[in-house]
Amino acid sequence: MKNYSQDIVRKKRNCRTSQLSESINHLSLSDNEDILDEVPGLKQHRISKAQKRREKKALQVKERELRIFEQEAENVYGARTIELETIKNILKERGLMIYEIPSDGNCLYCAIDHQLKMCHGNGLGVTELRLKTSTVLRENSNEYLPFLSHPDTGEMLTESQFYNYCDQVAHTTAWGGQVELRALSEALKCCVEVIQSEGPSMIVGEEYLKAGGSKLILTYHRRMYSLGEHYNSVQPFCQDEEEKLE
């Protein structure tokens, strides 16, 4: 009899638990809110948290607007823009404008190739120009080696390092600078003028110009790209094309 009574009590308790669980599961969000609103001070606390979220979001929006404003100011008054506008003005006085070259490590060779097409009607291509540059460097190591140093130590390159450098010039997209520019001038037997925003133009291979050779014109940009220095080519000035670049 005792066991039977315990079973009855246990069944009633389980039934009650099941009913309570089912009631909780069917309780809607609005029901929850109504119940919570009856707790003193809880509604005000919830509103306060919502207000904080709104204020945080508004602050994030203001911070974003400030960053946009600062970037716009940098675009208008920054060193990159000043450099670019200075070069544009120099070119415009000479009836020229920038011809943009991709920034991919080949900018010097692409700019030279574009100038060859402008002056002679056809270019040689980046691959051929790199090979010619490498050949001049190899054949004139005594002339060029003293101007090359190891990027980590700052020491002058050893002979083996120099020839490895020449291989990189020929077969990779290694960026070309003044040494390569001089080698290109020698390989092509032409003068190269490099217009920059600060100081006079740099002229390489002027002796070829005096001998009746052509002159190629490039522009040099220190701040055009975050990755580093860059060369562009030039073309005859055209107002419509100039506006597209702005």
From TrEMBL:
Coiled coil among keywords: yes
Keyword vocabulary terms for this entry: Coiled coil, Hydrolase
GO BP annotation list: protein deubiquitination
Pfam families listed in its UniProt record: OTU
Keyword Coiled coil found: yes
InterPro entries named among the record's database cross-references: OTU_dom (IPR003323), OTU_OTUD6 (IPR049772), Papain-like_cys_pep_sf (IPR038765), Peptidase_C85-like (IPR050704)
Gene Ontology molecular function: any one: cysteine-type deubiquitinase activity
PROSITE patterns linked: OTU (PS50802)
Name of the featured protein: OTU domain-containing protein
UniProt source species: Nezara viridula (Southern green stink bug)
